[in-house]
Amino acid sequence: MPSQAPSFGGPVTLNVGGTLYATTLETLTRFPDSMLGAMFREGAALPPNSGPQGSNYYFIDRDGKAFRHILNFLRLGCLDLPRGYGETALLRAEADFYQIQPLLDALRDLEVTQGTGVITAALFHADVDATPRLVHFSARRGPHHYELSAARVDIFRANIFCTDPTCLGVLRARFGVAEGDGEGSPHFRLEWASCPEGLPEAEYRRLGLQQLWVVGETGEKREVVGTPGFLEEVLQVALEHGFRLDSVFPDPEDLLNSRSLRFVRH
């Protein structure tokens, strides 16, 4: 550990959440009223941490990826984010932590400007999971003869998250999600199960299960039976709204039988 603090004009190494950055005291103290300005002002006794091979750095337990934009703002004095940057909420939280008021002002102006235009960058995620359930029931085989029967019911649960309100509204309408049910939130959930052959309708209703229907553009309704039918509807809506497929889990070669689809739009 060095016996004296770093000098102005010399390099300073920061470890922010595991990511290393090299800069200068002039950059870190550009805004003296900020937390970084207080940490590194001349005369502040802040000892660095010791790293491997005798290296020294100052550790800050914050988001390392977002600090890149913090540091660029300190260097440039203006906000310069990549096109389609979708983590302004995180960056605002980091700017608030470091108490960099000019950056907070720039982020507020950016959000106001974006709010007056058309939303382009967006994220769309859909995942679905199936749980088999063995249902036992009494089946009538004659006037006074009943026997125990069983049927397998596949119960599907899906989560949809989309940052484009227009696309999300289309999805809600297509899957018949009632207005007011989570309205205003960027996500909603679905749960459904088709009635299997051999299971009486009354028993199916007694279990509290329900089918999932989609409404087409002409008003026709069709049942979504399982995962492939659900993901086919999701894929169609995503492509219609300019999204591109970003990832498929677990098998990219088996798109309609996957458990998770992620779309992005820049």
What does this structure look like?
The protein is elongated. The chain is α+β, with helices and mostly antiparallel strands. The relative contact order is 0.10. It is 30% helix and 32% strand. Strand 1 and strand 2 form a beta hairpin.
User: Rg to the nearest angstrom?
Assistant: 28 Å
| Helix percentage range | 25-40%
Order of helices and strands: EEHHEEHHHEEHEHEEHEE
Total DSSP helices: 8
- Spans with pLDDT under 50 lasting ≥5 residues? none
Give the helix/strand class. alpha+beta
Task: Walk across the major sheet and give the strand order.
Answer: 7-6-5-11-10
Classify the oligomer: single chain
N- to C-terminal distance: 46 Å
- Major sheet description: 5 strands, antiparallel
Beta-strand proportion: 25-35%
List its salient traits:
266 residues, alpha+beta, 5-stranded antiparallel sheet, 4-stranded mixed sheet, 8 helices
Helix and strand arrangement:
Layout: E1 11-16, E2 19-24, H1 25-28, H2 35-40, E3 49-50, E4 56-60, H3 64-76, H4 88-98, H5 101-115, E5 122-142, E6 145-162, H6 165-174, E7 187-192, H7 201-206, E8 212-215, E9 221-224, H8 227-240, E10 244-249, E11 260-265
Helix pairs in contact: 3-4, 4-5
